[in-house]
Amino acid sequence: MPGPFRRILLKLSGEALMGSGSFGIDPETTARLAAEVKRAREAGFELCLVVGGGNIFRGLAAAAKGFDRATADYMGMLATVMNALALQNALEKQGVDTRVQSAIPMASVSEPYIRRRAVRHMEKGRIVIFAAGTGNPFFTTDTAAALRAAEMGCDALFKGTSVDGVYDSDPKTNPAARRYPRIGFDRVLNDNLKVMDAAAVALCRDNDIPIVVFNIREEGNLARVLVGEGTATIVGPLQGTDNG
């Protein structure tokens, strides 16, 4: 049965779809992620997703190399639509009703983003994948995830990463890095812990939406973390200490 979080937004990086590759979309990895989402839905959770586009195109990186920033960001948004369609295809192959809603209207391949329609889809048990970020340049898909989580009335934002939580330093380079079981929004912002970008963290803080950081690459982990098992860090309002 669902735990304290019933309606969640799952944020995936574009890199999560690459598998062991260095670019693009790996069908096997995408199918595994779809299976994770399917299991969560079958456990009684209402889910919506935001996926990044970094496996195909990174607007910020392109801007650093001379692209106009707004143009680069729009190109990155288009990459997220490709990833959203790949996830939709993988989910529907597994029998899961799915809708893609794009903040940049693309009537031939997706619905336009309409909040009430998205809520209705979720109420009917469909998975909604939000594509094209916020539809505006200069905003990341992290911020889009926080915005959609607030608009959908989500109980939490789950961020699937390649690590099992938030650490005081990079666990990949520092074996002594310490993982926080819980940590406050303000601590994340003040210490610049790079959980999500600052605008996304502040938006979640202002709307009382906890951020759950977990390792999406570990098979079955989404379902475990959703019911309070597995390993994760919860970023949210704290009473008393700041690091839980």
Q: What is the CATH class name?
A: Alpha Beta
CATH topology: Carbamate kinase
Total beta strands: 11
Main sheet record: 9 strands, mixed
What is the quaternary state of this protein? single chain
Distance between the termini: 26 Å
Strand order of the largest sheet: 4-3-5-2-1-6-10-11-9
Percent range for helical residues?
25-40%
| Structural class label | alpha/beta
Q: Could you spell the SSE succession in H and E letters?
A: EHEHHEEHEHEEEEHHEHE
Q: Measured on Cα atoms, how large is the radius of gyration?
A: 17 Å
The helix count comes to: 8
Shape: globular
Poorly predicted runs of 5 or more residues: 240-244
The CATH architecture classification is 3-Layer(aba) Sandwich
Mean pLDDT score: 92
Per CATH, the superfamily is Acetylglutamate kinase-like
Roughly what fraction of the amino acids lie in strands?
Answer: 15-25%
Structure write-up:
- The chain is built from 8 helices and 11 strands.
- With 244 residues, the chain is α/β, with parallel strands linked by helices.
- It has one domain: Acetylglutamate kinase-like (Carbamate kinase, 3-Layer(aba) Sandwich).
- The strands form 2 sheets. Strands 4-3-5-2-1-6-10-11-9 form a 9-stranded mixed β-sheet, with helices on both faces. A two-stranded antiparallel ribbon has the order 7-8.
- The two termini are 26 Å apart.
